[in-house]
Amino acid sequence: MVLRAGTLVELLGGQLFGDPERLIEGLASLESAQPQHLSFLSHPKYQQQLANSRAGCVIVSPNMQAAAQARGDCIVVENPYLYFARATQLWKQQFPRPDTALIHPSAVIDPQASVHPSARIGALCVVEAGASIGAGTVLKSRVTVSENCSIGERCLLHPGVVIGADGFGFAPDNGTWVKIEQLGNVSIGNDVEIGANTCIDRGALQDTVIEDGVKLDNLIQIGHNVFVGAHTAMAGCAGVAGSAHIGAHCTVGGGAVVLGHLTLAEGVNISAASVATRSILKPGHYTGMFPIDDNAAWEKNAASVKQLASLRERIRALEAQVKRLIPNISSD
């Protein structure tokens, strides 16, 4: 695909400073871009990379306009990262789509399942009885949608996703385990994207619910009865234990864990590798292994922890001085 810079701005907006006839042949990072490429600067800390970039045109925010113009052509917008995302969608639309059947011959779809005529079902997928797949949804290869689970419209499930496996429920019985049958389902809303090999378990009684616009990365585990609110995003290897309730517009960093039966309010952001050990009812950014805390407080405490060894030695030295001055004082 080749596009004039002026045409790009006509399609996506923004203010072009430079040659509207410049031909853009592709998208690239600041480091790897060549004169035929469009790139973007999302944060001022990468300003040096902007100065050194060979990109033909760079998307920048208003506060970086002067630096970008000193380098060459630029498109100025309020949110360069969002603009770049829309540019990638524009380029993707030009990719040729394979002329293949909407349902791959190797897919197994139960006669009692409901698959919208516009949905795409990839190789080796399994859609079981009572399952429902909405309009415009795409299941990549090896996706399993278990019985009675529903997926809304325009969803994208990447290879290996499993929807509706049994939740992890067992009752102890004199040293053995008795299975608790999982009688609920999984209900997934519209415009949800689920990364490769992510698993969403069916509920024990009520459904596991993933609301509209949720984005899940690869290798995520969502336990039974979990509720994930609209437009929440989770990075790879995150885990959510059973019956947790996560509000809308939350983010969960890679490798982070939300323990069972907890509630995260709308707008809560959990840092990577953190463990949410208590409910968080106030929006904000939270970090920590144990216990989780407000991010700003956690950073101060973490800085103090790094000094504990030296502080301990200083305290011992002070105690020794005090003992010399007051011999009978107790160190307890």
Automatic annotation (TrEMBL):
Describe which pathway this protein belongs to, using the record's wording: Bacterial outer membrane biogenesis; LPS lipid A biosynthesis
Task: Enumerate the active-site residues.
Answer: 224 (proton acceptor)
Its Enzyme Commission number(s) read 2.3.1.191
Example GO biological process term?
Answer: lipid A biosynthetic process
Question: Which GO molecular function, any one, fits this protein according to its record?
Answer: N-acyltransferase activity
Database matches in InterPro entries? Hexapep, LpxD, Trimer_LpxA-like_sf, UDP_GlcNAc_AcTrfase_non-rep
Keywords in alphabetical order: Acyltransferase, Lipid A biosynthesis, Lipid biosynthesis, Lipid metabolism, Repeat, Transferase
Annotated Gene Ontology cellular components are: membrane
Q: Which residues form the UDP-3-O-[3-hydroxymyristoyl] glucosamine N-acyltransferase non-repeat region domain?
A: 22-90
Which chemical reaction does it catalyze?
A: a UDP-3-O-[(3R)-3-hydroxyacyl]-alpha-D-glucosamine + a (3R)-hydroxyacyl-[ACP] = a UDP-2-N,3-O-bis[(3R)-3-hydroxyacyl]-alpha-D-glucosamine + holo-[ACP] + H(+)
Q: What is this protein's function per UniProt?
A: Catalyzes the N-acylation of UDP-3-O-acylglucosamine using 3-hydroxyacyl-ACP as the acyl donor. Is involved in the biosynthesis of lipid A, a phosphorylated glycolipid that anchors the lipopolysaccharide to the outer membrane of the cell.
Subunit note:
Homotrimer.
Q: Which family does it belong to?
A: Belongs to the transferase hexapeptide repeat family. LpxD subfamily.
PANTHER family cross-referenced by the UniProt entry? UDP-3-O-ACYLGLUCOSAMINE N-ACYLTRANSFERASE (PTHR43378), UDP-3-O-ACYLGLUCOSAMINE N-ACYLTRANSFERASE 1, MITOCHONDRIAL-RELATED (PTHR43378:SF2)
Q: What is the protein named?
A: UDP-3-O-acylglucosamine N-acyltransferase
Q: Origin organism of this chain? A: Rhodoferax ferrireducens
Gene coding for it: lpxD
